[in-house]
Amino acid sequence: MTQLVEKQLDDISNLNHTDYGKYFSKEEVEAFVRPESNVTTALDARLTEHNIKPKTTTPVGNLNRLTVEIPVHRAEKLLNASFDSVSFKSQLI
Question: Domain Peptidase S53 activation, which positions (predicted)?
């Protein structure tokens, strides 16, 4: 799917292509970015398994964007990752 979208984007952006300027409709873009139902189901199951409830569900077109807030130690466990914070003190020379 990604390669198809990339090719179509290349074609509509190429001055020499017959599809030049035939931009995607809002509905086509939403179809490209819509997750498959099995992905949504898996995400819901994973969040429920870890007792995580979305803070907000924001409609974006005909899609929903989830926002969750959890402590870093829980995110590290859930994602099997380690997060670090790095900061630098700015100095004028």
Answer: 4-84
